[in-house]
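Late entry, evening session. Most of the bench is empty. Finally got around to the prediction I had been postponing all week. Sequence below, unchanged from the version circulated by S.P.
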Amino acid sequence: MDKNADIATEIEVDESILDYLAFTAIKALLDDTQGQRHASRHELKAAPSLNMLDSFLTIFNYKHPQHTLSPNIRFRIRLLKFTSLFTQRLRASETSPPAPSLQSLCRRNRKRAQTFLSHQNPLSNLDLSLFEKSPPFPDHILLTNRTRLLSPAFPSNPPPPPSISLLETLPLFMALSAAQTILSSSPVTELWMRLAARYMMQAILEQYLVYGARGIEAIQEACAYGFDVEDSSQEEDAEAREDDLQVANMFWSGEGTEEVGGWAEIRGKHLSALVLPEGTSLLEHLQRLESEQLGMVEFERYVAEFLGGLMHAQPKPLLVQLEEGRVHGLGKRETQRLKERVGWI
């Protein structure tokens, strides 16, 4: 009995440390985002926090291979993974995922999107023929676009394409959002739907203006999100399949086979803006659409604020509360005694 109690205590302590390290790493990444956007050299101050967490997570999994983390900590780690991917996407860093992992993610999402679109196609009434007829924009146009769109993040050098595209991060944004709705037991809001539609549009514009995409595959991949009565997931991996199902259910109204109200209209309004007015070139049209959006660097800040909101929506880890000298539900004296008991002071 005493041995079991010791093991339970050890797991509880290790979970507290893991939760603390994940929280501080997220905060460091978001602080980097605020402080490094206008820097000529990109020095990732969050790197030590990320390395420390990675090392401790390896130890934790070795010590407790069968343990299932609490929902709050699982969400915190998911939030950290997305925050790390998104905030560092403009430049490759030591914590960037390897290219094969991103390529695998893209293949999986492309396959899921094709299945989704075979069940329902939000593009069916849109004339996007010019996207299929037009060749990719030449390199000098892409460089001009990158310079205009990304120069705030690269003030002293011609900007390269982002090392990770918005289209590659979009499935993870959706999965993170779905996990949040489950954790909070609350449906998606109209504000979130507008953010998600804007994310889609930014991802589409980046594909054509920055990477030189052609055809409509990028548009199809970006827009294929909503409630699907049929199962769109083609995943064999159980965790990835669960993510797909959670994302689909996030768009369910909760009644019958109805999609959540407002999503089809918001998504449709954004996608219809892609239809070219008569007499306008594709380049002119996409550049005008981009100018009406937030702008890529501004959009990065907007999403970073959303991520900060998710971070603060959760209770702070106990060790963070102790560090700040104020534990929820405890007075100053009780907090002081708790700090003494755990050896904080």
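Two things to note before I forget:
The mean pLDDT is 85.
The CA atoms of residues 112 and 234 lie 6 Å apart.
Will write this up properly tomorrow.
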